[in-house]
Target: ABC transporter permease
Amino acid sequence: MNRQGWGLQAYAIFYLLFLYAPIILLPLFAFNSGTIIAFPLQGITTDWFAQMWADATLRRALSNSLMIAVSASILSTCFGIFAARASTRFGFPGKGGMMAFIMLPMVLPEIIVAMSLLVVLLGMGVQLSLLTVIAGHTLICMPYAIAVLSTAFSSLDRSLEEAAHDLGETKWGAFRLVTLPLVMPGIISALLISFTISLDEFIIAFFLAGNEPTLPTYIFSQLRFPRAIPVIMALGTVLVVLSIVLLALGEYFRRRGNARIGGKPTGGLL
Model:
């Protein structure tokens, strides 16, 4: 291997270590019996996980976050189905500009989106609550759902729908009996990815949740107390495992959907 190849390999190794070392260290300190986050480790314990589950405020924050994530993922996926279907099957004036506008939250800084939503909602007299967080999360999750679903719809063979129409099915019947089952893996993938994004999101929840705690805002509030850090490490370990599982499932269903409808494999989200 030439010098340039060694340099690229060293860069890749350094980049991966920099990116994943904190995630690898997280479970180490979560199972450490010491309260100080430092080496050497003092012992192995699961007490921090027990204390995590015994915290009533944490359970409330977890319940709120799960409700928000489920609601936002369902809404963003439903809206994503409509948008992806329209953008891949129909031509209409201004389609490019409309789709670019819908996908804009994917590239805008979240703090700008959060501040804008806060100003608009307060100006309309809307009281901040979990419903406002659901609306904000739906806004930022929908572009990701559309990106996944657009691939599923664009890879679908149109002749299957035309055959259903020739056999006497209505447009709704063809969509329900033919199109929807074929793109179902993409729908499941969009649901899981949107759920993960909503569950981990902090900035929108911080601005729009009002007095209701969510899991990310609860973690942020506990970082001020050194004795709570090991419990946060335990909670972070659980969240990392959950996020990896959900993203892996989402990617699995996305690839399964591409194979099922005969599309070529494309770069995934993992």
The chain has one domain: 31-260. The CA atoms of residues 118 and 209 lie 10 Å apart. Residues 56-89 form the longest helix (34 residues).
